User: Which sequence fits this backbone?
């Protein structure tokens, strides 16, 4: 029989066990996340020779190009404003659903929840394809317009299509975020307000809206961040005519093979993420 | 005073928004039965030809098998890798456990376009692009955080006294884990399996960076198909995929409660 293990021995054995148990996930994380992301940051300072070849150096050339070229300033401005518009539209479309879900109960609520989550679990490619069927030249909307004797509209291969498609694709995220933030909403407070004579709109503006602001802030942060980085939908519904940061990153990486430029634009996306997060924290502190 | 739980206006607006939300999924169903050779809504004629056309399309079928195999391998590996990690972080509570969990779930905070580019650059160096192991590794980066999070929550909410009782009665730690802890985590395990499978099967942005002419996943093949031509083939495929997704969701709902698995 071995002597009883000392405290230090037990602690060491425990540490060894922990290390053994988390080693596989740490390995995947290091090789698939940490190293690639650090490498990406470094690559934005690589030099690109006129031939297109890359040189491992420390150069600010790519950054200077992005700062100096007004194309990129416009690209960033456009990405941010389009994403903000999509976020706002998503909020307006999602809020009634979230409020309705919050007030329903039982089987009906479960069914509605499944209806909200199912699109989330369906590939963005499938849902974007559905939007092509609705918005294209021979799609649902245009054929309906034609049947009514109205003029066909151009709804795809422009920002309109991208905004409509992305709004719908982001709605489930917004609805779930809103629902998570609706916890403070109490039916009794609303009833008290209407008993005291407030018309429905006043109840909404003075009671419901302020109480649900944390959910709104969370949903907006989430949707903005997803809109800035989304790429499948803008690519398919924009048809190469809508220029956004995410689509530009893909093109630079896969088509032009200018990895330092793609890396620089990626870092800019992360900077925008950071700014959104700071704004969110500020907003949250102001409303809580 | 308004006593109805939901006002009529809210109900109508909410239902209209539900219609908007579900429109792209509903519209593909009639198109999948179209007899036209390119996408048109409403179709001018009807046929069932697009369903067999999927199976006749060699690219789609091989991409489907790649995606299915990939999703199964990724799901199995996610469980095998995340479960020990969750156990270590939740039960053994090493110093810095919280920092470690944040690090391990951090890939979810990164936009997939940035993550995809970052992985592309590093994996290119090791010749992992357009290879099955490369795809598995890339998918694991995004499925593992989900798996770790769900399993850690499942572990943290288990009643510990049951395990203590088993240990007191002489069961070894591993037996306790196998006979007591694991069965009690059933709903968490099912949720993890379903979510990892769906995330991997549907993953398209990372895959776009990682695939090539040599190997393609189904969403990537569909993406390229839609980019080049709009015919009803993808509609038929979409219907099959939506049915597959609903099936997975239904199984999860029956076995562990959908709301608990996905919303909480």
Assistant:
């Amino acid at each position: 029989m071995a002597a009883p293990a000392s405290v230090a021995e037990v602690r060491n054995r425990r540490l060894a066990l922990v290390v053994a148990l988390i080693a596989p996930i740490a390995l995947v994380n290091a090789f698939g996340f940490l190293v690639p992301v650090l490498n990406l940051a470094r690559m934005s300072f690589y030099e690109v020779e006129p031939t297109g070849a890359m040189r491992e150096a420390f150069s600010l050339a790519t950054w200077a190009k992005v700062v100096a070229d007004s194309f990129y300033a416009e690209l960033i401005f456009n990405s941010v404003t389009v994403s903000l518009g999509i976020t706002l539209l998503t909020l307006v479309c999602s809020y009634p659903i979230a409020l309705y879900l919050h007030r329903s109960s039982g089987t009906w609520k479960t069914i509605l929840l499944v209806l909200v989550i199912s699109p989330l679990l369906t590939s963005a490619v499938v849902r974007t394809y559905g939007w092509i069927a609705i918005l294209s030249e021979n799609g649902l909307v245009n054929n309906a317009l034609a049947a009514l004797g109205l003029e066909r509209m151009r709804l795809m291969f422009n920002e309109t299509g991208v905004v409509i498609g992305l709004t719908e694709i982001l709605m489930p995220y917004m609805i779930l975020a809103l629902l998570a933030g609706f916890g403070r909403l109490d039916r009794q407070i609303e009833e008290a307000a209407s008993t005291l004579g407030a018309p429905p709109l006043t109840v909404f503006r003075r009671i419901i809206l302020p109480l649900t602001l944390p959910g709104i802030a969370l949903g907006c942060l989430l949707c903005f961040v997803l809109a800035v980085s989304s790429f499948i939908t803008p690519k398919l519904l924009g048809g190469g005519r809508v220029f956004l940061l995410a689509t530009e990153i893909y093109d630079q990486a896969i088509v032009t093979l200018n990895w330092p430029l793609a890396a620089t634009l990626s870092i800019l996306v992360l900077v925008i993420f950071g700014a959104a997060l700071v704004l969110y924290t500020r907003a949250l502190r102001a409303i809580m | 005073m308004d006593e109805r739980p939901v006002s009529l206006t809210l109900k109508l607006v909410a239902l209209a928004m539900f219609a908007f939300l579900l429109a792209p999924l509903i519209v593909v169903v009639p198109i999948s039965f179209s007899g036209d050779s390119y996408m048109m809504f409403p179709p001018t004629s009807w046929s069932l030809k697009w369903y067999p056309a999927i199976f006749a399309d060699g690219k789609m079928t091989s991409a489907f098998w790649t995606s299915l195999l990939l999703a199964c391998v990724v799901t199995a590996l996610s469980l095998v890798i995340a479960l020990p990690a969750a156990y270590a972080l939740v039960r053994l509570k090493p110093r810095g456990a919280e920092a470690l969990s944040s690090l391990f779930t951090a890939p979810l905070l990164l936009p997939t376009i940035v993550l995809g580019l970052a992985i592309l650059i590093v994996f290119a160096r090791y010749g992992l692009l357009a290879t099955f192991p490369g795809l598995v590794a890339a998918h694991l980066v995004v499925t593992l955080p989900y798996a770790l999070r769900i399993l850690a929550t499942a572990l943290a909410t288990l009643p510990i006294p049951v395990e203590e009782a088993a240990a007191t009665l002489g069961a070894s730690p591993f037996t306790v884990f196998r006979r007591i802890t694991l069965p009690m985590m059933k709903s968490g395990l099912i949720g993890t399996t379903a979510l990892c499978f769906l995330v991997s099967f549907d993953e398209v942005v990372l895959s776009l960076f990682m695939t090539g002419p040599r190997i393609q996943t189904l969403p990537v093949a569909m993406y390229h198909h839609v980019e080049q031509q709009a015919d009803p083939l993808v509609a038929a495929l979409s219907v099959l995929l939506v049915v597959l997704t609903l099936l997975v969701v239904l199984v999860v709902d029956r076995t562990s409660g959908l709301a608990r698995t996905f919303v909480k």
